[in-house]
C-alpha cells in the first residue's frame, strides 16, 4: 500500500533558492466522472496546480469525434502548448500534450506502438531554464535546459516492457537532466516495467491517483534523473479534480538553481 501523499518525499527538502513545479495529468478526453465533457473544467484544475510544466495524456486534439481541447487550455492557462498525437485520423486526433510556461527549445515524438495494440507514443521536449522568473545566467555561460518526456503506456505488461526499453534507449543526453512523467498504466507496485525504470531512475514517491473519486492505484508517475533534484511528489485532491477526470493530477517540485 502507498503512504499518504503528505508523508511522501523523494528526499528531505533543503529549501532551495528556486524550485520548478511540474505535473502530469490524464484528462480522460476531458470527460469527467459525471459524464460531462469540459475542457474548461480541466483548465481550471490545471490552474489550481500552479505548475511550470504540465504533461497531459488522453488529450482530444480535433476531428469529428471530439473538439480540440488544446486551444482552450492554451488560452485559459497562458502556457505554450505542444501536441503529441498518437492517433491522427480525420475522425479523431488524440494523444499526449505538454503545457509550459518556459520556452520550448526542441520537440521530438517517439513512436511506442506495439504490434496491433492501441497506438502509443511519447512527446519529448527540451525546455529552457534561462528564461524563468528570477533565472540567473549560469556561471560558465552555458545554456541550461531540462528534457521532459511525457507518455502514456499500454495496457498489457508485455507492451509496457517494450515501451520502457524504447524510452530508456532514447535517453541519450547524459548532461541534461531528464524528467519522465505520465500515465504508466502499471497496476502493480513491483511490476517489471517499474523495475526496469529503476535501472535508469531511482524509485520516486507514487501517491495513488486512480480512480479520482477514491484513488486506489498509482498509475501516474513522475521520475527524474538525477534523482536528487526531485524534492517531493504529491497528488492534487481538490473537489474539482475529483470530478474533472477519472485520474487525479500528480505534482512535483524539482530543485534547479542550486544544481544548474
General description of the model:
α1 packs parallel to α2 and α3 packs parallel to α4 (192-198). This protein has five helices and eleven strands, in the order βαβαβββββαβαββαβ. The longest helix has 14 residues, at 157-170. It has a single domain (20-255), classed as Endonuclease/exonuclease/phosphatase (Deoxyribonuclease I, Chain A, 4-Layer Sandwich). By secondary structure, it is of the alpha+beta class. The N and C termini lie far apart (35 Å). The chain has a six-stranded mixed beta sheet, covered by helices on one side. It has a five-stranded mixed beta sheet with strand order 5-6-7-8-9, with no helix packed on it. Keywords: Endonuclease, Hydrolase, Nuclease. It holds the Pfam family Exo_endo_phos. GO terms for molecular function: endonuclease activity. Residues 24-247 form the Endonuclease/exonuclease/phosphatase domain. InterPro entries: Endo/exonu/phosph_ase_sf, Endo/exonuclease/phosphatase, GPI-anchor_lipid_remodeler.
Strand order of the largest sheet: 3-4-2-1-11-10
Number of strands: 11
Secondary-structure element pattern, one letter each: EHEHEEEEEHEHEEHE
Overall pLDDT level: 86
For the record, the count of structural domains works out to 1
Write the layout of secondary structure elements.
Layout: E1 19-26, H1 39-49, E2 53-60, H2 70-77, E3 80-88, E4 93-100, E5 104-111, E6 121-128, E7 145-152, H3 157-170, E8 178-183, H4 192-198, E9 220-225, E10 230-235, H5 239-244, E11 250-255
Parallel strand pairs: 1-2, 7-8
Antiparallel strand pairs: 1-11, 2-4, 3-4, 5-6, 6-7, 8-9, 10-11
